[in-house]
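Hi everyone,

Forwarding the result from last night's run.
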Amino acid sequence: MPAHTPSRTVPPCVVVTGVSGTGKTTTARLLAARLRVPFADADDFHSPGNIAKMAAGIALSDADREPWLISVGHWLRDRRLRGDGGVIACSALKRRYRDILRSAAPETVFLLLIADRELLSERISHRREHYMPVSLLESQLATLEPLDPAEQGLTLHADRPPDALADQAVAFLTG
């Protein structure tokens, strides 16, 4: 369900957001390829300390997240200034976190992926090469704030295949 439809004259900057297990990275990669824009994974912007905390099952505080979000915002700003757009997979679960990203790149569009707790838990428990343990799912779900109607973005249910989600996002962004 769209919160607000963007109008585009240059390639968009898109943040594919949601809790762990929604398929953010896969969907973001597919969307970037379809839009022919650069892709990034915000997990790569985390400090070693943040990664160690999450791997140990410790939820990040807002103070832990702020430098990370600022780095992600700079990536978005740089894409916008270059005029080449970009898609990044980034949890950005709270409106406040998305505001930090928008402060660097105001025209950023958010694609929020949501899913049922059981599906998310199953997906996370089957991951082999990711530091995010299933034990942090509850804290992420408690932190998640839906897109506000004033935010440019779209909310999609991630029980559908990533290809279908990327296609729906392209239609939203280019329609």
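The first helix runs from residue 24 to 35.

Cheers,
N.
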